[in-house]
Design brief:
Layout lengths: L10 H6 L32 E2 L5 E2 L4 E6 L16 E5 L5 H8 L2 H5 L4 H14 L17 E3 L2 E3 L1
Antiparallel strand pairs: 1-2, 3-4, 5-6
Length: 152
């Protein structure tokens, strides 16, 4: 039960199991197969910082702030970055985030090892084994370069 609603009646849970979102038939969560994921979700924080100045804080007035959610985007202040507008005397990270999300590395997501590690982790647990600390370590070296400035 989530928020007083039986899990099998929550539309997003039903979609996860490939069922009619508006249906009410029970789901056997122990045996039901989940639909493989086809999308990703990210979380970012929009801040009053200037990316062109090394993300230094900015201040000023805000004349307009619009969060326009779409049917494909939901949740607590969840918006498509193209559907977010902030107008005022400040700089924010919205433009930077939009450009970052359009990069080839972000779109093609060449860093897929997390899924393989998660599968191996679950297999070990299924055998009654607990993975070692090194199995939890995921390290990826990434250079952050914006407008020819490399950030440490």
């Amino acid at each position: 039960v989530a928020m007083g609603i039986a899990l099998h009646r929550i539309p997003d849970i039903r979609r996860l199991y490939g069922l009619d979102p508006l249906g009410s038939s029970p789901i056997d969560f122990d045996t039901a197969e989940r639909v493989p994921p086809t999308n990703h979700c990210i979380a970012v924080r929009v801040t009053a910082e200037n990316p062109d100045m090394g993300f230094k804080p900015t201040s000023g007035t805000i004349q307009e702030l619009n969060f326009r959610s779409t049917p494909d985007v939901w949740g607590y202040f969840s918006v498509d970055s193209s559907e977010l507008s902030i107008r005022g005397d400040i700089r924010t990270t919205v433009e930077y985030i939009s450009v970052l999300m359009a990069t080839e590395d972000f779109v093609k997501n060449p860093y897929r090892r997390t899924t393989q590690r998660a599968t191996a982790f679950v297999e070990l647990l299924g055998k009654g084994q607990f993975p070692s600390d090194r199995d939890f370590l995921i390290e990826q070296s990434v250079d952050l370069i914006y407008e020819d400035v490399k950030y440490q």
